[in-house]
Every structure is written in structure tokens, then in C-alpha cells.
Amino acid sequence: MPMSDKQQLHRKIMVCSFTLTDVMLYLDSHPDCQEALDYYHKHKQMLEQSVKEYEDTYGPLTAMGVNDKNNWTWVATAFPWEVGES
Fold it and tell me: Are 39 and 55 in contact (CB under 8 A)?
């Protein structure tokens, strides 16, 4: 079964998060590697853009993403990890 746009975007966020964790571990032992630092910044920007797109379209990705000052929207829709929910 093909993934929905929401699922594809969530997967992209997970991949970017994993990639950032991996490159951060590398940078811990190679702090002067400019290539790794550039790679980190590129994927950090991709993650930030993807999270913004997700939250603008589908609601908060985490409870920290709730921006509505009048409602607690974290529980208003399906949670991001709920498979099959749109």
C-alpha cells in the first residue's frame, strides 16, 4: 500500500533526524571536519523545513509544536506515529 503524503513527510523527518544524530556523533570526534559540518547544516535545515511543513499541514509533530494560544491542539488530531491515520 502506498504511503500518504503525511506518512512520506513523517518518514523524511525521521530520516533527517537519524542523519543528524549520526553526523553529530561523527562531529564529536572530528570537530574540525568542515565537510561534516556543512553536511550537518544542510540536513538540519532540511529537518527544520520538513517539521514546519508537517506542522503547518497536519498539526504539531510533538507537544512542543503546539502554537495555538487558546487550544491544546496536541490531542486534536491523530498522533504522528499512528499508522493509517490521515
Answer: no
